[in-house]
Each structure stands twice: as C-alpha cells, then as structure tokens.
Amino acid sequence: MSVFDYIGLIGVLMILVAYALIQLDRLDVKHISYSVMNAAGSGLILISLYIDFNLSAAVIEGAWLVISLYGIMRAFQKRKP
Q: b or e along 38-55 (b: 16 or more beta carbons within 10 Å of the residue's beta carbon)?
C-alpha cells in the first residue's frame, strides 16, 4: 500500500467514527466536530483519489466536503453574538 492509500483509509476512518458517534448518541449532528470530522475525512479521501482516480468516488467526496464546510460555516455564524 502507498502513502496515499493510508491517507484515504484515515479519511474513511474519520467519517465512520463520526457516523458511529452519531448512532451511539455520543455526538450531535449540529455540533461543529461532526462537520469537521466529515470535512477532514472527505478531504483525505480526495487526496488519495488524486493518485488512483475514480469519478463517482470523487463526486461523492467532493459533495461531502462542500456540505461539511457549509456546516462548519453555519456553526461559526451561530457562535457570533
């Protein structure tokens, strides 16, 4: 396995951990950490796809990243007085 495979696997792990924490009621989907974990995970998967490209995987991860970044932006906007 290459370094990029490991990077992608770390990204997958981050997304799966975030989802598991939601299912276990240990994390709220509105909490910024959920969006951060998803954004970082999808970003790492996109990095791994740079080497071994797959269009459908790139599209879903790109969408996942954009949606997660929107969630992060909303969380920061709600914190402002």
A: bbbbbbbbbbbbeeeeee
CA distances from 45 to 52, 73, 74, 78 (A): 11, 21, 23, 29
**Residue 19 φ/ψ, nearest 5 degrees:** -65, -40
Distance in angstroms (rounded) separating the CA atoms of residues 44 and 38: 10
Domains identified in the chain, total number: 1
- The whole domain housing 62 covers 3-79
Q: Note the pTM of the prediction, 2 decimals.
A: 0.91
Q: What is the pLDDT of residues 16-61, one digit of tens each?
A: 999 999 999 999 999 999 999 999 999 999 999 999 999 999 999 9
